[in-house]
Amino acid sequence: MRIVVCIKQVPDTAEVKINRETGTLVREGVPSIINPYDMHAIEAALALRESLSGKVTAITMGPPQAEAALREAISMGVDDGLLVTGREFAGADTLATSRALSGAIKAAGADLIICGKQAIDGDTAQVGPEVAEFLDIPHVSYVRKIVEAGPGSIKVERLMDEGVDVVQAELPALITVVRELNTPRLPSLKGKMNAKKAEIKKLSASEIGLTPEVVGFNGSPTQVKKIFTPEPRCGRRVLEGGIEGQVEALIKELMEKKCL
Amino acid sequence: MDYFLSEEQVMIKELARQIAVEKVVPVRQELDEKEEFPWDIMRVLASSDLFGLFIPEEFGGFGKGSFELAIAVEELSAACLGVSTTYAANALGTYPILLFGTPEQKKRYLPDIAAGRKLVAFGLTEANAGSDAGGIQTTARPEGDHYVLNGTKQWITNGGEAEIYTVIALTDKAKGARGASAFIVEKGAAGFSFGKKEKKMGIRASATRELVFEDCRIPRENILGREGMGFIVAMKTLDSSRVGVGAQGVGVAQGAFDEAVKFARSRVQFGHPIIGFQAIQHMLADMATDIEAARALVYQTARFIDSGAKDVTKASAMAKLFATDMAMRVTTNALQVMGGSGYMREYPVEKMMRDAKILQIYEGTNQIQRNVIAQNLIKEAAKAK
């Protein structure tokens, strides 16, 4: 089975700080990691390859340094990496990103595409499904278990707010995966050595059959008007006294505020 | 300090550290308290290829040496000595096969060891043969196509968990140490069983058991080297592995030191973080210097061994002695810097201090290391005349 994993290099949000003036992330000195949900996508792809054989390709769109994310994927066992890169891709929203990724996936060819459910920086959860729309193939999001895979179809469990759907889809298809699916493996020494040597293929817009007008900032209908940090709400009060007094005071307060 | 590691050595270090941080640190306290063998971590080490580091490529390993093994052991030790003891004892048990195995024996055992499919243990110590390895009483009697083993090995690391055992037994009682031979015994051999699991002060994730041989018949081809070479097999094995114990010392000391620094920066007394006080600063400065000196000695000794040097006995004894006495000192002082907090099981340093103690004892007590060093000094002085 030919599997493509879409990954994104994101700032390690555990380390990130926010510039209060501009409302944007301070990227300087913050380590970049593979989006944690994408790690589960990689693990799923590798596990499928182990049981079905085939090939796993990781694709990302980003600046040249995003190559590091692809190499990390290779160190875990992914066969090769494709980097969609160029100035023309900068400033992309989810639509332009999905268009570019789908172009690269067409070029690579895939029976199954696996994405993390969302990226921890943008948190939109839109790119996976949008890629499927561009490719005109079925997609299942929030997959927590792959029940059966191939040939010709895939059966998965989709995590819903209340319970689980069991969904079958014709291949080629795209799935987005949640954390419950698996535990991502660590790299192996052989993988790390492969990653060091691996040649990462770079693709520009023209190489995936797209014009500069439909990718990056130009191809993005979403325009960010303003970024701000909501003012912290004040008025915190600590009730004092014995536990019964506190409960009474709390109930009185809540009733006054019409919360009860 | 920069030790000019190669690209591959840096990869090994990073990988071992990643495993230590992500897989060992979160569970080390639980493993210690439950005295639970770290199978999950062994599986991670296996899938990450780290069991094959020092095994030749033709047998599925990476063909690296003591140095690369020391780097991996050091990183794991910074997280948990119980885990790193399990990993390092596997190498200890493998060395007799690596150093003295026939091509057939290597082909039969090394690929499984390199892939981490089978763990190995080394059986030398007995109730009456500790520092005096010549006092062993386990016998191996030739009988047709077999050897018949009888006796009990004591305090064997990885005992019961390992599949492959390299064991020293007497083939000729009258000759004492010169009558010892080395054998490969597989788990499941008839007449081979395990005694109770020992309860220990530290390294409690590692398994320590008796190996019991009662008319245990093993095929004749399981002898390593020739009859009478057992003592040489044991000594050469320990020459290769001791530097790894030194690496454990460097690792656990670094782990404890890092905790002490972190604590000293955040603990406020008399209105200042205690790292601002000279009493603490001098302790930390001494600890850092101690660790770096030991690391330099351990790394250089490992490189000396890997250079193919003929006689590494003195160097490896020095590396083991210095780095493990250092580890006891540094873990003790790291705990002291942390005061009452250090003594609490909420912090990892009391465990590190308990764990470090074994390093001064196993694979030859540090008193025996001094004997070994002194014997070599006497030999060298006699030669110089």
How are helices and strands ordered from N to C of chain A?
EEEEEHEHEHEHEEEEHEH
Can you give the mean pLDDT of chain B? 97
CATH classification, class level of the largest domain in chain B = Mainly Alpha
Radius of gyration of chain B: 21 Å
Given as residue ranges, the uncertain stretches of chain B (5+ residues, pLDDT < 50) are none
Level-1 CATH class name of chain A: Alpha Beta
Separate helix tally of chain B:
11
CATH architecture of the largest domain in chain B: Up-down Bundle
Terminal residue distance of chain A: 58 Å
Instruction: Please state the overall shape of chain A, judged from the principal axes of the Cα atoms.
Output: globular
Give me the CATH superfamily of the largest domain in chain B: Butyryl-CoA Dehydrogenase, subunit A, domain 3
Number of helices of chain A: 6
Helix content of chain A: 25-40%
Average predicted local confidence, pLDDT of chain A: 92
Model description:
The complex is a heterodimer of chains A (260) and B (385). By secondary structure, chain A is of the alpha/beta class. Chain A contains 6 helices and 13 strands. Chain A has a 9-stranded mixed sheet with strand order 11-10-9-12-8-1-6-7-13, sandwiched between helices. In chain A, strands 2-5 form a two-stranded antiparallel ribbon. A two-stranded antiparallel sheet of chain A has the order 3-4. Chain A starts with a strand and ends with a helix. Chain B has 385 residues and is α+β, with helices and mostly antiparallel strands. Chain B is globular and about 80 Å long. At the A-B interface, α5 of A face α1 of B.
